[in-house]
Amino acid sequence: MATQHSRSAARIMMAPAVILLLGWMLVPLTMTLVFSFKKYLPLRGGDLGWVGFDNYVRFVSSSAFWPSVQATLVIVGGVLAITVVFGVLLALLLDQPMWGQGIVRILVIAPFFVMPTVSALVWKNMFMDPVNGLFAHLWTFFGAEPISWLSEASMQSIILIVSWQWLPFATLILLTAIQSLDSEQLEAAEMDGASPLARFGYIILPHLGRAITVVVLIQTIFLLSIFAEIFVTTQGSFGTRTLTYLIFQRVLESQNVGLGSAGGVYAIILANVVAAFLMRIVGKNLDA
């Protein structure tokens, strides 16, 4: 049993790491809040003083604000739908005994470790190029006109690229949950004459409820800040400009740090609202 002295020693040893972590989070957040109330143009006069809530009003009243929020939510919803559905199917497949099962699992999980910029470049040049891409050759082989994916189906292309990156993560979590299922329940249901679809709907899927909600929560937090894939492929064109990309444009392209900082505060608010909503769902499932 830990004594008061040992607990105090543990707090002292942990203090540097905690202070560093708090500083790592709080300093940028504080600077963002301060700049959001200023007119700060680095290349056009620098700090021009306080403007109050003018940056917030300008950012939210911009014609690009609500379309960027809508694009962000569409991408998040599309990626979640694809990764959860196909993650469950892949997890069920990988749980079956097969030759080279370990190698297959490694290959399925491998895309998660590819950098977003690299994966976006691969998809853009090797698959979606309207002239030399793999999809163009397939379309031509079947006698169809190749599609310029990143301009004609830009939103679907972004969702496909991001889903390919996050599908391994969902599959890994769901596979772990499936392997924790008591096999005696499935065997008993099979002996009672339950069909594979009935076993999935009444035993496997309810068991995956907690894992699915965790996947949705974690992926949503990261997907709300999606940037690299859009920067490499469409650069925010054709309706793919998310809130994060809009902030990038306001800060770097317009050189308006104050306006971009106000957008960053809006992004933080949006992330916290979505996370709080999902946490309620996760809490209900974990308490069930």
Tell me what you see in this structure.
The mean pLDDT is 83. The protein is globular. It has helices at residues 4-36, 54-60, 65-94, 101-109, 116-127, 134-141, 149-152, 154-179, 183-191, 196-207, 209-223, 228-233, 243-253, 257-287, and strands at residues 38-41, 46-50. It is 74% helix and 3% strand. The relative contact order is 0.14. Strand 1 (38-41) and strand 2 (46-50) form a beta hairpin. Strands 1-2 form a two-stranded antiparallel ribbon. It has 288 residues and is mainly alpha-helical. It is built from 14 helices and two strands. The protein has one domain (34-287): MetI-like (MetI-like fold), CATH 1.10.3720.
Could you give the topology of this structure?
Elements: H1 4-36, E1 38-41, E2 46-50, H2 54-60, H3 65-94, H4 101-109, H5 116-127, H6 134-141, H7 149-152, H8 154-179, H9 183-191, H10 196-207, H11 209-223, H12 228-233, H13 243-253, H14 257-287
Antiparallel strand pairs: 1-2
